[in-house]
Amino acid sequence: MNIKHFLDQTFTESLSSLAGSDTPGIVKQAQRVEFGHYQANGVMGAAKKIKTNPRELAQQLISTLDPETFTTEVAGPGFINVHLRTSFIASELNKLREDALLGVVPVEQTKIVVDYSAPNLAKEMHVGHLRSTTIGDAIVRILEFLGQDVIRANHVGDWGAQFGSLLAYMDRQSQKGESLSTELKDLEKFYQAASALFKSDEEFAKTARGYVVHLQNGDPKCLELWQQFIDESIRHSQEVYEKFDITLTRDDIRAESAYNDDLPIVIQELGEMQGLLVESEGAKCVFFDEFKGKDDKPLPAIIQKSDGGYPYMATDLAAARYRTRVLNADKVLYVVGGEQLLHLRQVFAVAGAAGYIQDNQEFRHLPFGMVLKADGSRFKTRDGADVKLIDVLDEAINRAFALVSEKNPSLAESERQEIAKVVGIGAVKYAELSKNRTTDYIFDWDTMLSFEGNTAPYLQYAYTRIRSIFRRASVEALEGEIELVEEVEIRLGLKILQFPEAIESTLEDYQANVLCNYLYELSGVFNTFYEQCPVLALDNPTSRLLICELTSRVLKQGLSLLGITTVEQM
């Protein structure tokens, strides 16, 4: 149950029965909601609409409410203070125990494409892919939990001029008798070697440019080399996804190259629309008044370059066309960095004009900020190279292993290794997801791996604390009802009931930090409950054990939606 929706519906129905007027949204959450206190603030507007005294209308409204559910009072010129009765809160908690979705109501199913991660297959995934990959995966997990038909779209970069130097370098090394499978194990070094040679050797650069043409023309030898490189690069990416517990698979890849045959069709279709596609300095472009550059000059959306090549704009238009005409998507979410804001605005504008985006569809950019070092600079190595994402994950696991070993040295090493993976990976994900999506954030090992504060280890430890209660209680099955007596029990019960509201609020702007904050607050209230309300000291601990069980279910489910795993002990 979403308590805010329940209250709003209750007051709206009561108001409609009194005045025949539908006035939704008259209930607004008060600051002290953790004590079951809400406030109906829309009474005065409703009274004005039906031309009656606000306090009298408020009094009439509360007379229609169920006294077993609420206690109410009229305050000020017509506010209604609403307090949920403890018995009602306990009743809702008992219902929640039987609900697999923990009160979350599935929404009407729609088909949603989520475009995320999208590494450049020319080199290994780096820390710059952290945000898109983590945010996108949390979004698809939550949407699927709500019953949506989600299509993961990994729009990887596997085409373009950069592959000319890579293929030329591959051919050169194979002619030397070098083992390509060995050399490709470190894609980053291979990419750097090919790039350096391209810059320093004009003859090699000329050859590399020729390889681009051969590749685009479907030359069998080039395609064979290209496929070998792509297969190895995808293997690298999938290794990262597996270690990072990301739900993307090879089947979710629809690469840039998949749209090659569609690019001339895009040009043709845009050209058939009167006045849309124009030639400018040899390139085929679309101009819209809303896009201006320096000196207020029109900014072109270049669809085909003067040399006949196709930029990202063309590929993204072909992707939009595919997602509308083939996938029949109702909504497409682009989890792409904020620096691509202008590019995607132009893509959506051109796609809309071309009919690739229909009026009943939503194409939306979900931008995010950068990952920074403590000094505010971009997160790179000392020599300026991008930090490999696999190295970040390995270091997180190693650091977590040291912490877990220090905290619980009696555990077997294999157990500590498993816990370290869960804690380390969870820490990296949560450090990302707990921040506002649109802002930059500082990557800090000490903060993200701390067992105190708003971190994954803190939440994971709260979960293990609950499981330790059940291990000590030696209880396999619980029968009985939740009964709330102490104030902190009531606070914990109410916080549990706010889980559906947290999910809904998270999806309002696809901000995972909303769910993170909720889980952090839930863990904090539970820890206070744990300290103030001894569970196993009671002669009959059933009720408190049931509250603990429900808390652990919400924590585990909430963390799972963020892509974070829990363990039974730490």
Question: How is the topology of this model organized?
Answer:
Elements: H1 3-19, E1 27-29, E2 37-40, H2 43-50, H3 54-63, E3 70-75, E4 79-84, H4 86-96, E5 111-115, H5 130-145, E6 149-153, H6 162-175, H7 180-183, H8 187-200, H9 202-216, H10 220-243, H11 263-271, E7 278-280, E8 283-292, E9 298-304, H12 312-325, E10 331-334, H13 341-354, E11 362-365, E12 371-372, H14 389-407, H15 413-433, E13 441-442, H16 445-448, H17 456-473, H18 487-497, H19 499-508, H20 512-532, H21 542-561
Helix pairs in contact: 2-3, 4-18, 6-8, 6-9, 6-10, 8-9, 12-13, 14-15, 17-20, 17-21, 18-20, 18-21, 19-20, 20-21
What does this structure look like?
- This protein is of the alpha/beta class and 570 residues long.
- Among the domains are: 3-84, Arginyl tRNA synthetase N-terminal domain (Gyrase A, domain 2, 2-Layer Sandwich), CATH 3.30.1360; 162-239, no CATH class.
- 52% of the residues lie in helices and 11% in strands.
- It contains 21 helices and 13 strands.
- The chain has helices at residues 3-19, 43-50, 54-63, 86-96, 130-145, 162-175, 180-183, 187-200, 202-216, 220-243, 263-271, 312-325, 341-354, 389-407, 413-433, 445-448, 456-473, 487-497, 499-508, 512-532, 542-561; strands at 27-29, 37-40, 70-75, 79-84, 111-115, 149-153, 278-280, 283-292, 298-304, 331-334, 362-365, 371-372, 441-442.
- The longest helix is centred in the middle third of the chain and has 24 residues, at 220-243.
- The protein is globular, with a radius of gyration of 29 Å.
- It starts with a helix and ends in a 9-residue tail after the last helix.
